[in-house]
Amino acid sequence: MRSGVTIAVMNKNRIHKDSNIGKVHLPFFLIQHDEDFEGWYPVMYESKIPGYPAEIVGELRLRFKYEEVVILPSSSYGDLLKLLLDVESQLISDLVNVSKNLEWFAENMLRIYAAKDMAMEWLLFLARNEVKATDDANILFRGNSILTKAIDGYMKLIGLQYVDEAIGDIVRSICDNKIYVEVDELKLERNEDVRTHWRVLIGYTKMLWKSIEKTQAKCPRELCVFFSALRDIIQDKYVEQSQSVRYTCVSGFIFLRLFCPALLNPKQFQLVKEHPDARTRRTLTLLAKTTQSLANLTDFNSKEPYMAQMNEFVRQNSAKLMDYIDYIATEKVSPANHKTPPVQSPETFFKPPQIPYLIDIDKELSSFSSYVIRHREDLENLISLEKTTSS
């Protein structure tokens, strides 16, 4: 590893032996600890003839992150864990303010709390703070905050199976059959009939929505509990504002941050094995646009006039969307709602591993410790500034 990383690129052959295309070598000096890298790197083919120079035969796009983690015995993290389990600790707020990678920090904290069955408590604390600091319900949860990043991670942590059950079959059918739909007449070929495309798009949109409705009972209980508590928090704050906010606050997460991203990037959500081609991706994009409009309870406006024909579908199904939200946001918070059965219990013994048993909390605490050390100077400056301001 000290000399770098070498990736072999092979041509897989079902009949004959796999052949070597070349190698990508990443020198160690290019790899920075805990930094995300993405780019194109040359694939070098080394000739078997002695003295013959290697040649570039192509490029490979890579996205990677190098991380070294030194994990100490569990007892070494006792004091740190005790500090972190105080969800209202100022330490977390300070770390958020100096974070250069909010997504990583949110997911690291989420895993620590999830391993201790405290993810719900932490998320609701963040939600109360964000709602308290936001006077306009229309911009609530629109930005990239510690809360939205944490919930994104939480939904992926516990909701991937639900996404697959709700929309997986339809997405796979579209990708396998390379279904192409385009309703923007400016992008159509002369011999293409936009009415035919509209019939196909509306057909798949109805299938998608019906499948989501049909699987509402499979929404993970943890998400239902969170959505129910979130609605209570919002209704207490925005008493005089539009009642639609009690629906859009939930749809903004389950649709705009789970279903729609899964439509736009099905491979990332483990719905398909390969990225869809450009034409198929356009079909999924149009489905995501319609789903987003329905989730927002709004028509398509003048910015996308070519989608106006879908407004009828949105209006016809707005009441059904609200029924769906009412259904998945009814579980109330109680210890029984999110208490994890012991690993030895019959309830978990014969099932696949689940949270928190999938999380190596010592590894997460080690990563957190390294993060604090790297940002020590920033933290000290922030604490000094806070003391000066308060004095």
From TrEMBL:
<dbReference type="InterPro" id="IPR023152">
    <property type="entry name" value="RasGAP_CS"/>
</dbReference>
<dbReference type="InterPro" id="IPR039360">
    <property type="entry name" value="Ras_GTPase"/>
</dbReference>
<dbReference type="InterPro" id="IPR001936">
    <property type="entry name" value="RasGAP_dom"/>
</dbReference>
<dbReference type="InterPro" id="IPR035892">
    <property type="entry name" value="C2_domain_sf"/>
</dbReference>
<feature type="domain" description="Ras-GAP">
    <location>
        <begin position="101"/>
        <end position="296"/>
    </location>
</feature>
<dbReference type="Pfam" id="PF00616">
    <property type="entry name" value="RasGAP"/>
</dbReference>
<protein>
    <submittedName>
        <fullName>Rho GTPase activation protein</fullName>
    </submittedName>
</protein>
<dbReference type="InterPro" id="IPR008936">
    <property type="entry name" value="Rho_GTPase_activation_prot"/>
</dbReference>
<keyword id="KW-0343">GTPase activation</keyword>
<dbReference type="GO" id="GO:0005096">
    <property type="term" value="F:GTPase activator activity"/>
</dbReference>
